[in-house]
Amino acid sequence: MSDASRRLLPPMAALHSFAAAARLGSFSRAGDELGLTQSAVSRQIAHLEDWLQLRLFDRTGRRVVLTAEGSAYAEAIAPALDRIRRATARAIERRPDRELSIATLPSFGMRWLAPRLPRLTAQIPDLTINFSARATEFHFADEAFDAAIHFGRPDWPDAAHDLLFGEQAVAVMSPDFIARHAIVTPADLARVPLLALSSRRRAWPAWFGAGSIAAPAPEPTAAFEHFLMLAQAAAAGAGAALIPSFLIEPELASGVLVSPFELTAPDLGAYYLVYPPDRLDSPAFGQFRDWLIAEVS
């Protein structure tokens, strides 16, 4: 590291003292959190101010208040310090070379991945996979995941994308709901309660458009975060729902849910395996990726 680069990295002790004091608004409370005396925190911050040639706090008696420069600096370094802590935790908690952590959409994990895991175990018996349910995107630099299952477009930041498959959503409802509302044609759904997934509110208008239904799609009466919650509500007769058929095969097979129309919603996205490009250097991840793509094929 050059002298110029080193000059831009203040001592970590000073940064921690400053970040704690900025967050807590007190040198003494920062000292309590860090296990230091108030005077030690004050010295560390004075050292940082000297390093930066900036006044970070205004001191009035025993009170300290961030200056405008101090507030901007605190806001900028806090995420970096958090990422250093998480990276250190991951380094300390090193996993075996044959262990992976995969984030998956909850319904996809339960209905598509879980039933296939016996084949994975049979094919690669020494590989351990830890699956966690995650419904929203995250930065791989901030999380200890090797990969994630993503739905939408190939737009996950700083990640490679392997296309798995698209999604065909069908209109489903309970047999009692169909009888109660005398549903015969797709147009009949314009006059009944509709249920939606929170992240797919455009699905019903797209389905109505695909069927050239003249009436506009009604606003959903309820929205759910996960498909399986949506399926439960539809099975209970709360309304008609648009759900990918591969996620509700047991309900369709048992007759708890019925799909009376062949009409499907236009593809609103696809499922992808996403991962930091350097994960391809891991033999364990390469085996899991190859197995997953083969399952899709």
From TrEMBL:
Residues that span the membrane, as ranges: none
Coiled-coil parts of chain: none
Keywords carried by this UniProt record: DNA-binding, Transcription, Transcription regulation
SUPFAM superfamilies per record: Periplasmic binding protein-like II, Winged helix' DNA-binding domain
Domain HTH lysR-type: 10-67
Family the entry assigns: Belongs to the LysR transcriptional regulatory family.
Designated name of the protein: LysR substrate-binding domain-containing protein
Native species: Sphingoaurantiacus capsulatus
Biological classification of the source: Bacteria, Pseudomonadati, Pseudomonadota, Alphaproteobacteria, Sphingomonadales
